[in-house]
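Support case: magnesium ion complex. Customer-provided input:
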Amino acid sequence: MLELKSVSINYGAVKAVHSASLVINRGELVALLGANGAGKTSIINSISGAIPISAGEIVFLNERINGLSPDRIASRGIIQVPEGRRIFPFLTVGENLMVGAYLQKDKKTTQKNLERVTNLFPILKEKFKQKGSELSGGQQQMLAFGRALMANPMVLMMDEPSLGLSPLLTQELGKQIREINREGMTILLVEQNARMGLTLSTKGYVLVNGQVAISGSSAELLNDDLVKEAYLGM
Ligand SMILES: Nc1ncnc2c1ncn2[C@@H]1O[C@H](COP(=O)(O)OP(=O)(O)OP(=O)(O)O)[C@@H](O)[C@H]1O
Ligand SMILES: [Mg+2]
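Agent response - structure generated as follows:
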């Protein structure tokens, strides 16, 4: 469904990603793992068109999408939950969710999505009229997740959703991610929490210094000695 072919990303003289290749099939949950500065966010941002690539190709549904504007890419159905949440603090929870639906022209679909999101995150229904700033960190993460779902994505990209969450909330978020994937959503999940990433995913890629160092089924990676030692603390 979505494929990165030998993608390189530079920031001026800084080579952030070198010749990375990834394949994400329809309905798959793929984990992208790696330490600080490995290039995970750069890859997500290049897929969403926020930053340009310097070599390679990004193909979505058999069409090249690198070079398209972020708006065009979003309207094709690739939606990102940004790192650090970035909800609108002065808008209400409901308004924040509706921002996610801005590309959705059909009111019935929007209503259906709203029901789905508030069923998945009952707290958002409870706090529907409160300001985004009044939510806890975990609730803001749910709001950012819910807002992305309001766009009715074909591919959902999540950048370190567990960052800053308590173990309990991380577990809850994991369940929600799994549920969305079970309903058929294709997900690219960036995580520093390798255990969480590999537990949820079917397949994983480990980035080291901007290169795909290890890849394989998540079960394989969970048993890989290098992955265990470097990322799972075993
Ligand atoms: N705007 C920028 N200008 C220059 N260098 C950048 C920029 N953004 C990222 N980099 C560099 O690119 C490399 C990859 O960064 P990136 O943010 O993609 O890593 P990451 O895997 O998402 O890290 P983290 O886990 O800290 O979020 C790093 O060396 C980083 O310093
Ligand atoms: Mg990052």
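Residues 11, 14, 16, 34, 36-42, 192 surround adenosine-5'-triphosphate (ligand 1) (CB under 6 Å).

Case will auto-close in a few days if no follow-up is received.
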